[in-house]
Amino acid sequence: MMRTPTRPPLPNYLGKPLALWRGCVQKLKSVMPKGLYARALLIVILPMVILQTVVTYVFLERHWQLVTHQLSTALVQDIAAIIDIHNSYPQDKNDETLTRIAQQRMNIDIEFIPKGPLPPPLPKPFFSIVDSALSKEISRQINKPFWLDTVGRSNLIEIRVLLDNSILRVVAYRSAAYAANSYIFLLWMLGTSFVLIVVAMAFLRNQIKPIVQLMNAAEAFGMGREADFRPQGAREIRRAGYAFIEMKRRIERNIEQRTAMLTGVSHDLRTILTRFKLSLALMGTAPEAEDMQKDIDEMQRMLEAYLAFARGDSGEAAAKIDMQDFLAGLRSEAERHGAEIAVSLQGDPQVIVRPAAFKRCLSNLIGNALVHAKKVQVEAFRDQRFLTVNVDDNGPGIPPERREDVFRPFFRLDPSRNQDQGGTGLGLAIARDIARSHGGDITLSDSPLGGLRATVRVPV
């Protein structure tokens, strides 16, 4: 026997990083948007945000740093010149002249204070372009102990330089050492990004709209409803729309052909059965004739069931009905056959279904319950999206492992619960086929009454 080669396990140093990577990918998938519009918008916005971030970083690191360095160099040059003049002419009168010249010509305030220890260093700010540029230039041009404050007052910078016999205190505007028009760049960047995002949202919404229309048309066709759909949008979306319309026409044509064929078969077989009945009526009341009459009635009933299953609910249009009146009609029909059922409805009674087909669906479920139970109740719940109908009984029920099997055509359980007893075994199959043709389904579960619960859930 040939053995399938097995993949060798990954080394431990590769297995753990790979498992971590897969976990991160799965977590990322769980938080990613699920809708096409949101995903497309993310594809447009994410590169835009990354581009703006990169441009901002490059601008800050290149342009702002260069401009700030040049301004800081000029400011420190002025301070160095003041220190040189003060050291060369250390008279008090000259200090007053320097203060006046610095204020009028250099637009900075200076003050010579008595010599003492400098304040403790302040923590470096997170955005430290000005702080680093000034510190570097003061160390290079003046080369004396200094203290720098670029955080305390937002629009001012304070510098203290320790001289031989005093301390020079300098207060300058931040604009003297920093490109103060940076907010214009930020506003321009944010403004253009906002405009681009709005344009992208409007454009994507216009592109996604034809896809949503195609989806709604497909859902309406699946539930047997007519939808006014015209292909629009991009070339690929229009091609998909035309393909859907052509597929819809082929399906409708096949359904019409099948319906015509079944109608012809039904007419021919009914004609033969009518001849049999007429022949038996002419034979009189012989015991053999009674047995043959029962066989013919059974054959006619089986024929109707087969044709109903094969025909489905084709040809019937969906319509709005009042579910309260609909359930009352089912109850009246059951009472005419000598049975009693309890019905109730919660929510808006207006629903859109194929009336005759949906009645056949619920009638099959109720009839199946009445065969095997003494108490049957029907509860309907209507919310914004779905109509849910529960048919409960107190019969023997169906084992959980056999509940899907009973929906197969011609399938029969043991005699303890033989659905469609004396029939063809098509009642539940027809009911599920009708529910699925409405875009819903039928499920079986345990009933609060002790028997079986059949739940019909269809979109409305």
Question: Could you characterize what this model shows?
Answer:
This protein is an alpha+beta fold and 460 residues long. It folds into three domains: 31-216, no CATH class; 230-311, Helix Hairpins (Orthogonal Bundle); 316-459, Heat Shock Protein 90 (2-Layer Sandwich), CATH 3.30.565.10. Helices cover 56% and strands 15% of the residues. It has helices spanning 12-31, 36-88, 92-104, 129-141, 182-222, 235-283, 287-311, 323-336, 355-372, 427-437, and strands at residues 108-114, 146-149, 156-162, 166-173, 319-322, 341-346, 350-353, 376-382, 386-393, 441-446, 452-459. A five-stranded mixed beta sheet has the order 6-8-9-11-10, with helices on one face. The protein has a four-stranded antiparallel beta sheet with strand order 1-4-3-2. A two-stranded antiparallel ribbon has the order 5-7. A hairpin with a 3-residue loop joins β8 and β9. α2 (36-88) runs parallel beside α4. It is rod-shaped. The two termini are 57 Å apart. The model is unreliable at 415-422 (pLDDT under 50).
The main sheet comes to: 5 strands, mixed
Total beta-strand segments? 11
Distance between the termini: 57 Å
Report the structural category.
alpha+beta
Give the helix proportion (percent range): 55-70%
**Content of β-strand:** 15-25%
Within the largest sheet, what's the order of strands? 6-8-9-11-10
Helical segment count: 10
The general outline is rod-shaped
Unreliable runs, pLDDT <50, ≥5 residues? 415-422
Q: Calculate the mean pLDDT score and round it.
A: 80
The H-and-E topology, N to C, reads as HHHEHEEEHHHEHEEHEEHEE
Radius of gyration (Å): 44 Å
How many structural domains does the protein architecture include? Answer: 3
